[in-house]
Amino acid sequence: MKTYTVLLAEDVPHYGTAHITAASAAEALEAARHLDTGDHCTDSDSSTTVCRRIVHIEDEDGNIVAEDIALDGYFLRYGGEPDRLLCDATPRLLDALTRIAAIPLWGEPIAGAQLKAELLDAGEYDRDRDEFEPSGDTKSCYLRDAVEIARAALAEIRGAPTTTDDTTQPQTEGTNT
């Protein structure tokens, strides 16, 4: 049997109060933004720890065999307000990616009966030949790139391997009409 050393971590909130004298609530908020929390937050609350994680596991020879493993559903993200807004928008972005990734490309089979019916009504599906015949240019590299990038992003979000080529750069072949 080998012995492994596990480095664990968790973030413990600390609370504290400060007194501010200000002419208005807006001035109090501005003054509070400049307080150093380290000077005031001295009361820890270990019952509300977050970001529990395995920092790393080290074997007897000093080799790191695992690292950065979350043990709860929390994470920290640096980036300020723009990143917070991005995180808040994620459900809508995921929905948009899902809809884009569902766009059939030229020559792809159409699996869903509902989608077939919608495309048939729009005159973009030939039932006799079982083919997608779009009225728009789905051969366009721009649409193809958008769909493939959306599919790759969804696969990454879902932890699935991607099978497409690098689609982060626009492709030049195909028609662009």
Describe the model.
The structure is a single chain. By secondary structure, this protein is of the alpha+beta class. It has 5 helices and 7 strands. The chain folds into 2 domains: 66 residues, no CATH class; 78 residues, no CATH class. It is 34% helix and 18% strand. Strands 1-4-5 form a 3-stranded antiparallel beta sheet, with no helix packed on it. Strand 4 and strand 5 form a beta hairpin. The protein starts with a strand and ends in a 20-residue tail after the last helix.
Alpha carbon gap, first and last residue: 66 Å
| Strand elements, count | 7
Amount of beta strand: 15-25%
Number of helices: 5
Provide the domain count: 2
Strand arrangement, major sheet: 1-4-5
Order of helices and strands: EEHHEEEHHEEH
Shape: flat
Rounded radius of gyration (Å) = 26 Å
- Give the averaged pLDDT, no decimals: 81
**Into which percent range does the helicity of residues fall?**
25-40%
Question: Which spans of ≥5 residues are poorly predicted at pLDDT below 50?
Answer: 164-177
Quickly give the structural class: alpha+beta
Largest β-sheet summary: 3 strands, antiparallel
What's the arrangement of secondary structure elements?
Blueprint: E1 5-11, E2 14-15, H1 25-33, H2 37-40, E3 43-44, E4 50-58, E5 64-70, H3 80-101, H4 113-121, E6 125-126, E7 131-132, H5 141-157
Antiparallel strand pairs: 1-4, 2-3, 4-5, 6-7
Helix pairs in contact: 3-5
List keywords for this structure.
single chain; 177 residues; alpha+beta; 2 domains; 3-stranded antiparallel sheet; two-stranded antiparallel sheet; 18% strand; flat; disordered C terminus
